[in-house]
Amino acid sequence: FRHSDNMNVIIFVCMLALAAARPDSGYDRSSALDVVPILRDDRVYPSAAGEYSLDTETGDGIIISESGYGSGPDGAVETQGSVRFTHPGGEVFELTYVANADGGYQPQSAQLPVAPAFPHPIPQFVLDQIAFAATQDSDEYIKYN
Questions:
Q1: pLDDT category, 38, cuts 50, 70, 90?
Q2: pLDDT at 63
Q3: Which pTM value belongs to this model?
Q4: Residue 13: count of CB within 10 angstroms of its CB
Q5: pLDDT tens for residues 84-110?
Q6: 99 - beta bridge partners?
Q7: Which of 75, 69, 70, 79 is nearest to 106 (CA)?
Q8: Are 94 and 111 in contact (CB under 8 A)?
Q9: Alpha-carbon distance 80 to 75, whole Å?
Q10: Edge-first strand listing for the sheet containing 92-100
Q11: Rounded to 10 degrees, what is the CA torsion of 116, 122, 128, 130?
C-alpha cells in the first residue's frame, strides 16, 4: 500500500462509522427542526455585588424567572426563582426554589415526590441511645471521664 491508499482506507472506514452511527428511522427530525419563539427575555447581568435576574418565556409555554444577590456569607450569591411548563400530556408543572447558605437548594412543588411518613413511632430505648451517644461527644463527658 502507498501512503495515499492508506489514507483512502482510513477515510472510507470513518465514513462507514459515521453512517452506522446516524439515528434510526424512529427519530422524528421534524420536531428537532421546529423553532420555538422567545416571547420574553429580560436579563440583568451580574453586578459587582452578584445581583442578577432573568425572566424568559417561550412560545411553547415555558416560563423561567430567577434572581439573585450576593447576600450570603462572604458575598455568596443567594438565588430564588421559578419554572413553569406543560408536559406533553397537558399537566402543568410548577416549581419554585430558593438556594442559600441556610438550606442549600430548596425546591417546592406539588409535583415533587414526598417521602412517606415513618411507619411507626421510634421506641424509647432507641431515643435513649441517641441521647446517650450525644453526651459522649459533648465536652462535659470528656472533661469528667
A1: very high
A2: 96
A3: 0.56
A4: 10
A5: 999 989 999 999 999 998 889 999 999
A6: 79, 105
A7: 79
A8: yes
A9: 16
A10: 38-44, 52-58, 63-69, 78-86, 92-100, 104-108
A11: -20
How many helices and strands in the chain, by DSSP H and E?
A: 4, 6
How far apart, in whole angstroms, are the C-alpha atoms of residue 132 and residue 31? 62
Q: How far apart are CA 112 and CA 123, in angstroms?
A: 30
Q: Exposed, middle or buried, 62 (CB in 10 Å: 0-12/13-18/19+)?
A: middle
Q: How much of the chain is in helix, strand and coil states, percent to nearest 5?
A: 30, 30, 40
Task: Report the largest interatomic distance among the alpha carbons of the chain, rounded to a whole angstrom.
Answer: 87
The DSSP symbol for 36 reads P
- Write 40-48 long-range contacts (CB < 8 A, 24+): 46/77
**Cell digits of residue 29:** 427530525
Cell, residue 4: 495515499
C-alpha cell at 66: 430567577
Residues in the chain, total: 145
